[in-house]
């Protein structure tokens, strides 16, 4: 009985972490689906959308940002284009706890 309870608690924790992505990304649902596909071995294009900015994001960075957001450590992101390059700076805004 205790094993089942721990399994359900772990599953609910993962769902809570995944749903935290809707605070950060406009296309959060498609990103969650693609993230799951990447985790099981599919090769899919992984792009994020924040406001009007669309950019490539590694699954590792996505997981890191979502994990931090689920713990309340990140509340929003600021996307800054770098001058003279095509790179972006993603600046997570830390929560004031």
Biggest sheet descriptor: 2 strands, antiparallel
Q: Percentage of helical residues?
A: 40-55%
How big is the Rg? Answer: 15 Å
Number of helices: 3
Order of helices and strands: HHEEHEE
- The main sheet orders its strands as 1-2
In angstroms, what separates the terminal alpha carbons? Answer: 36 Å
Describe the structure.
- The strands form two sheets. A two-stranded antiparallel ribbon has the order 1-2. A two-stranded antiparallel sheet has the order 3-4.
- The protein has 97 residues and is α+β, with helices and mostly antiparallel strands.
- The protein has one domain (2-72).
- Helix 1 (2-19) crosses helix 3 (59-70).
- The model has no long low-confidence stretch (mean pLDDT 79).
- It is built from three helices and four strands; from the N terminus they run H-H-E-E-H-E-E.
Question: What key attributes describe this structure?
Answer:
97 residues; single chain; globular; alpha+beta; 3 helices
Q: What is the compact description of this entry?
A:
By secondary structure, the protein is an alpha+beta fold. It has helices at 2-19, 28-39, 59-70, and strands at 47-50, 53-56, 74-81, 88-94.
Q: How are the secondary structure elements laid out?
A:
Elements: H1 2-19, H2 28-39, E1 47-50, E2 53-56, H3 59-70, E3 74-81, E4 88-94
Antiparallel strand pairs: 1-2, 3-4
Helix pairs in contact: 1-3
């Amino acid at each position: 009985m205790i094993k089942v309870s721990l399994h359900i608690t772990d599953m609910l924790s993962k769902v809570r972490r995944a749903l935290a992505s809707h605070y950060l990304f406009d296309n959060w649902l498609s990103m969650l689906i693609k993230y799951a596909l990447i985790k099981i071995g599919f090769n899919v294009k992984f792009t994020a959308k924040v406001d009007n900015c669309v950019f490539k994001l590694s699954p590792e960075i996505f997981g890191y940002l979502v994990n931090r957001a689920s713990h309340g450590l990140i509340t929003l992101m600021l996307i800054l284009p770098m001058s003279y390059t095509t790179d972006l700076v993603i600046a997570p805004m830390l929560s004031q706890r």
